């Protein structure tokens, strides 16, 4: 399978990974043959790429760190809590009774158990959700990445749990800020920005009162927008004044925001988002943890289209776990001319670099319609 821009999709392409809705349910099942109607709908829903099956890349498989079933369960349970929080009566009851912390701790246990069974210390996240799932998938993805980064940093299980739980809840204070401002597509005014920035303290105040949430986890909400150079908020902490949970958490938080579909802009590809992390290393982010992130978060998931410095175009066939920045590429196209596909291991070919995504991406090859499934509603 391979990732293809929506603009290059043609009727008859076969979807290789399902598309998920905000409640974790499948909107469009893998195996569905895409019609022009589906493709139009996907464009309207702000998707900019999907995974498709084609004959050249049929052997490329995508491994998810968290199985799709667990992801669906976690997203649906997080959504249920947020739905209750949106109801003013339910909101206060959930918070005052301590149920908020208890429910989230139970959800995180599901995620944590799933992560504990994977000893690779490498995160692969490539499930595709609608933009309105962002609130819930962001909690899950950031909780997942933070937990694996904690493991990779040598935290014991108890500390990983506290960090991952805090990471999953880092933005909970957003339920207390003005929702109209929060969902505003354009630029914020000074006043609006000040309103949004309150979410760190509001989240901390909410979490610190929850008997099931450790104090250090609540600090994830308070500190995730502090910046390494002291220009962040709310307290303008600098360097090691920021708890290491906060210094690590800032990285997956920004990365997931950039690589998720949003209502007002399409998702960046993972390696495009990493350019931002590099550019902000030492100013926004602690350079030590940017390195940790790059060694453990697979920014080139299998199937990612890449343009190489030697003019070749291909897709990522598999990762090199010792060097995630230099995966094995299945070359498909040379300077615009289709070639017989062959593999190129970038960990061995150090003179070749990935220079980005090819805007002239080769169209999908003949469809191999193995395993066609039943299509679901794409409402
Ligand atoms: Fe935030």
From TrEMBL:
Domain called HD-GYP: residue spans: 113-309
InterPro entries assigned: HD/PDEase_dom, HD_domain, HD_GYP_dom
Annotated organism of origin: Alicyclobacillus ferrooxydans
Listed name of the protein: Uncharacterized protein
Organismal lineage: Bacteria, Bacillati, Bacillota, Bacilli, Bacillales
Stretches assigned to the HD domain: 135-258
């Amino acid at each position: 399978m391979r990732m293809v821009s929506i603009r290059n999709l043609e009727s008859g392409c076969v979807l290789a990974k399902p598309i998920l809705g905000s409640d974790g349910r499948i909107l469009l099942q893998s195996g569905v043959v895409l019609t022009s109607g589906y493709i139009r709908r996907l464009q309207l829903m702000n998707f900019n790429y999907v995974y498709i099956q084609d004959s050249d890349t049929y052997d490329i498989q995508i491994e998810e760190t968290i199985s799709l079933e667990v992801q669906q369960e976690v997203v649906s349970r997080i959504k249920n809590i947020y739905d209750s929080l949106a109801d003013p009566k339910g909101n206060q009851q959930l918070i005052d009774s301590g149920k908020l912390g208890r429910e989230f701790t139970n959800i995180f246990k599901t995620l944590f158990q799933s992560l504990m069974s994977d000893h690779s210390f490498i995160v692969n996240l490539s499930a595709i959700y609608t933009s309105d799932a962002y609130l819930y998938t962001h909690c899950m993805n950031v909780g997942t990445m933070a937990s694996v980064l904690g493991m990779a940093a040598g935290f014991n299980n108890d500390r990983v749990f506290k960090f991952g739980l805090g990471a999953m809840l880092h933005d909970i204070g957003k339920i207390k800020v003005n929702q109209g401002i929060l969902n505003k597509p354009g630029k914020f005014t000074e006043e609006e920005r000040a309103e949004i920035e309150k979410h760190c303290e509001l989240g901390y105040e909410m979490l610190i009162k929850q008997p099931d949430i450790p104090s250090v986890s609540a600090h994830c909400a308070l500190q995730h927008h502090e910046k390494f150079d002291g220009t962040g908020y709310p307290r303008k902490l600098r360097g090691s004044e920021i708890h290491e949970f906060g210094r690590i958490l800032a990285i997956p938080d920004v990365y997931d925001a950039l690589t998720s579909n949003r209502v007002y802009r399409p998702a960046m590809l993972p390696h495009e988002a990493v350019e931002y992390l590099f550019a902000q290393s030492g100013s926004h982010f602690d350079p030590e943890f940017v390195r940790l992130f790059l060694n453990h978060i697979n920014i080139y998931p299998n199937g990612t289209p890449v343009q190489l410095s030697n003019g070749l175009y291909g897709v990522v066939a598999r990762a090199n776990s010792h060097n995630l920045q230099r995966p094995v590429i299945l070359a498909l196209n040379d300077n615009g001319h289709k070639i017989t596909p062959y593999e190129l291991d970038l960990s061995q070919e150090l003179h070749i670099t990935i220079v980005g995504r090819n805007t002239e991406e080769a169209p999908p090859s003949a469809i191999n319609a193995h395993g066609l499934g039943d299509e679901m509603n794409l409402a």
